[in-house]
């Protein structure tokens, strides 16, 4: 009688673990969808590309005028200087160089983002679900075998 109750309890625990696994999978899927939903909307990349082209134009203009900007920062004329303290000049120049680097690598960044959106995530999700089901099934058989060995 106690062994039957223990066996039933182990089966119930296995079923609960299976349900927990399914709920965790659904939670992960929901988190993934909310995380990448906005990136995969139609027109998102063209909007980002347009904004980056505008940014590239601005940065190219700043980069082209960089020597002039550096001269103005180094030799400020009161009415024609940037309102920055001397300590902030180098971070401004570094920030400009960093932005220029981002714009010069924009095609690679867009290609990476497009790759993420073009993946068949539902297929991957199904594969993970299949593997999870197989693992849970194997664990259940293993528990049953262990239980049978203990008797």
Catalogue the unreliable spans: none
How large a portion of the residues is in β-strands, by DSSP E?
under 5%
Quaternary organisation? single chain
Major beta sheet summary: none
Helical content, roughly?
over 70%
* pLDDT averaged residue by residue: 81
Number of strands: 0
SS content category: mainly alpha
Provide the succession of SSEs.
HHHHHH
Radius of gyration: 30 Å
The best one-word shape is elongated
Amino- and carboxy-terminal Cα gap: 12 Å
Number of helices: 6
Give an overview in words.
The chain has 6 helices and no strands. It has 151 residues and is mainly alpha-helical. Helix content is 82%, strand content 0%. The protein is elongated and about 95 Å long. It has helices spanning 2-36, 44-64, 66-74, 89-104, 106-118, 121-150. Helix 1 (2-36) packs antiparallel against helix 6 and helix 2 (44-64) packs across helix 4.
């Amino acid at each position: 009688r106690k062994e039957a109750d223990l066996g039933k309890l182990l089966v119930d625990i296995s079923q609960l673990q299976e349900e927990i696994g399914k709920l965790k999978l659904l939670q992960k899927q929901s988190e993934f969808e909310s995380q990448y939903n906005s990136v995969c909307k139609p027109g998102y990349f063209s909007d980002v590309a347009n904004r980056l082209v505008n940014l590239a134009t601005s940065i190219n203009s700043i980069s082209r005028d960089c020597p002039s900007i550096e001269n103005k920062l180094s030799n400020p004329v009161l009415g024609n200087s940037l309102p920055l303290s001397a300590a902030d000049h180098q971070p401004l120049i570094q920030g400009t160089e960093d932005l220029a680097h981002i714009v010069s690598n924009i095609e690679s960044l867009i290609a990476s983002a497009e790759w993420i959106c073009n993946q068949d995530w539902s297929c991957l999700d199904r594969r993970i679900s299949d593997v999870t089901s197989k693992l849970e099934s194997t664990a259940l058989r293993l528990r049953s075998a262990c239980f049978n060995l203990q008797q």
